[in-house]
Each structure stands twice: as C-alpha cells, then as structure tokens.
Amino acid sequence: MQKQEAERPRKGLKIGRFFFTPGIIPTLAAIIVFTLLLNLGFWQLQRAEEKNYLKSRFESRNTLGPMTLEELNTLQGDTNDFPLKTSGHYDNRYNVLLDNQMHETRAGYHLLTLFIPSGSNQGIWVNRGWLWAGHDRSILPDFPAIEGQQALQGRVYTPPDNVFLLKKDNFNQVSWPFRAQSMDLNSLQGLLDVQLLPFTLRLNPGSNDSSMPREWHYLPIGPEKHQGYAFQWFAMSFALIMIYFFTNTHKIKPEQE
Q1: 55, 223 in Cβ contact below 8 A?
Q2: What residues are paired with 212 via a beta bridge?
Q3: What is the pTM of this model?
C-alpha cells in the first residue's frame, strides 16, 4: 500500500503521458530569475536605442561647420557634439586633472584649463588632452602654461551629472591644479570669480598644443554590443524556462495510469 502511494504522481497538470508537477519554491525562484533576465534584456535594448541616437547625432553634427559662442547660445536643447570655434586667453591659474582616463592601456588624466573668450564675462573649461599620471600618483604631472591670445576649435561636451563615484571630490579644500573624479561644473563654479558656461570644449586632435593625445570616444560601446547583450539575456531567460519545465515534468508509469 505504501509503495503504491509512493509511486502515485503528485497533483499537477497532465499533458499526454506526462505530469507537470512544479514545486512552490522552484516556481518562485524561476519567476524571480526570469523577471530579472527579461529586465536586463530590455534594459540593454534601451541602451542600444540611446547609443543609436548618440551615433546619429554625432554623424549629423559632424557635417556642420564650426559655430561661434553667439550662434551656439541661440540653439535650444542639447548642444553636445556641435563644432565650436572661439578666441581668447587661458587663465592658467585654474587647471583640473580629470582622473581615471586611459590611453593605450596607461592611466592618466584629462587636462582642463579655464579659458576666457574675448569680449565675454564667462569662462569655459577647455579639455586640452590626455596626460600620463606617472609612476607616483602622489606627484601631479607637469604641463605647460599657454600664454597670449589663442584661437580654439573643438566640440561641445556636457559632462554627465549622474556619474557613479566610489569617492566624491572634496570642494571644501581645493588646491590648483585640482585632481577631480568628475567635472562637476556646478561645484567648480563656486571656486571661481567668473561665470561658467554649462559645457566644456574638447579640442580637435592635431590643433592647439597637439602634443597631448586626444581620443574622444563618444561611443566606447556601440549599439550593436548592447543588442548582442540583450540577445544573451533573452536566450538565458528562454533556457531557464526550458530547464524549469523539463525538471518538473515526469513521465507517467504504466502502473500509475
């Protein structure tokens, strides 16, 4: 009698000669993991759409001629990647070394110097390029000061606000040059006696003190990569469902019929 009870299948869904008998705990675990995998897949698709927009924006604005600050100020909305030309002088008292910037597998900084356009009461941070950090990070690298009137050409770049940082910059104790983890324009504004423009200028490669490497990777990961990642997450979610059904499906024995 006990043997017959042990061989009797649990209550479940009968499909032909099979019984689908999932347990509560495996079902809950499968639902949670399946939902997580789907969300990761849709998130990667969203990232791919964002990268497609950035790619098309760069390509369309790359065909334009350089604009002046006056022309740029008349534009509404996003001004990233617009070519810009301006003239003026550097304020060599103020330099920011933007940390954790890589070039050819070496760690270093991006050097940003405050620039005052001619006839303007506003300043703009100009990204002059990459500097090697050196073997001793406690010693900041040397860089040349640029004197006199300068004519610059580059592209507009607005630093993101939502940068994930393990350690935030301390703007209460600042010495120049200032080593920073991010370009927080609002916080830097409080350290200067000039009004800042709400973006930075990345100099064109090969122009204006081009001894510093300038590789502006506007898309370090293209949309195709994100689409590939999305396919992997969706494939894993499909594999999870298959495993869930196969491990919880049992063939009905002839004596159990």
Answers
A1: yes
A2: none
A3: 0.72
